[in-house]
Amino acid sequence: EIVLTQSPATLSLSPGERATLSCRASQSVSSYLAWYQQKPGQAPRLLIYDASNRVTGIPARFSGSGSGTDFTLTISSLEPEDFAVYYCQQRSSWPPFGQGTRLEIK
Amino acid sequence: EVQLVESGGGLIQPGGSLRLSCAASGFTVSSNYMSWVRQAPGKGLEWVSVIYSSGSTYYADSVRGRFTISRDNSKNTLYLQLNSLRAEDTAMYYCASQGPYSTGWLGYWGQGTLVTVSS
C-alpha cells in the first residue's frame, strides 16, 4: 500500500500570491502522479498528470513537478477561482488519493 | 461532446440495495478505464471500484463483496450495484473515465449521484 500525504492541510493565501502544495508518497511512484481540483458542489477536475503534464485548457499558472516520492503543485499567481481543494493521486496501488489540501482566501 | 450522467441514488435503509448508472456519450465505455469514486459529506475522495477495458475489476476493501461494477456495451453505460448498504456508504458517488489520458488517470467526471443510507 502506498500512502500519499498532502501538506499543508489548509493553505491560506491572497489572490496574486504563489501557492505551493506538497504531496509525499510512502514509496516511489516514479512520475505516476496526478493532481485534481475540486470546487464546492462540483466534481473533481484533472489538472496535471504524469507529475508535470498539464491537461489541455488548464491555465499555465498551474504547474506540477517531482518524481519518486516528492511532488509539488505550484500555482504561480492565485486567481479568485483557484481557491478550492486539491487532491493528489497515484496509480501504482490502492488507495490512490491523498487526503487533500484546502486552499482558502486569506 | 463527452458527457457522463449518473443516476440511481437516493435514500435507502441500512441493509438495502441500489443500482447506480452512468450513461456515457462522446466516447465508448468498453474501450476505457472506468471508475466509481465516492465522497462522504465533508470528506475527501475515496476510490470505490474500477473496470478496465479488458473487463478486469477491482474494489476497495471497504466495499469488496458488497458492491459490483459492470457495464452494458450496448447501452454505453457503467453500473455499480450496491448491496448490504451501511450508514458509512453515505456519499456522493461519481462516475469517471480516463478520457484521452493514460490508464489510471480520471480525465472525465460526471456530476455525481447522492446515496444516503439511513433508517
Describe, in plain words, how this protein is organized in 3D.
The complex is a heterodimer of chains A (106) and B (119). Chain A is an all-beta fold. The radius of gyration of chain A is 13 Å and the shape is globular. Chain A contains no helices and ten strands. Chain B is mainly β and 119 residues long. In chain B, the strands form two sheets. In chain B, strands 2, 4, 5, 6, 9, 10 and 11 form a seven-stranded mixed beta sheet that branches. In chain B, strand 5 and strand 6 form a beta hairpin. At the A-B interface, strand 4 and strand 5 of A face strand 5 of B.
By secondary-structure content and strand pairing, the structural class of chain B works out as mainly beta
The end-to-end span of chain A amounts to: 36 Å
Work out the strand percent of chain A.
over 45%
Which stretches of chain A are poorly predicted, pLDDT < 50 over at least 5 residues? none
Which consecutive residue ranges of chain B, at least 5 long each, have pLDDT under 50? none
Question: Ends of chain B: how far apart?
Answer: 40 Å
Percent helix of chain B: under 10%
Shape of chain B: globular
Count the DSSP helices of chain A: 0
Mean pLDDT of chain A: 96
Beta-strand segment tally of chain A: 10
Radius of gyration of chain A: 13 Å
**Largest beta-sheet details of chain A:** 6 strands, mixed
Strand content of chain B: over 45%
Oligomer, anyone?
heterodimer
Strand order of the largest sheet of chain A: 2-10-9-4-5-6
| Helical stretch tally of chain B | 0
Give a short account of the largest sheet of chain B.
7 strands, mixed
- Tally the beta strands of chain B: 11
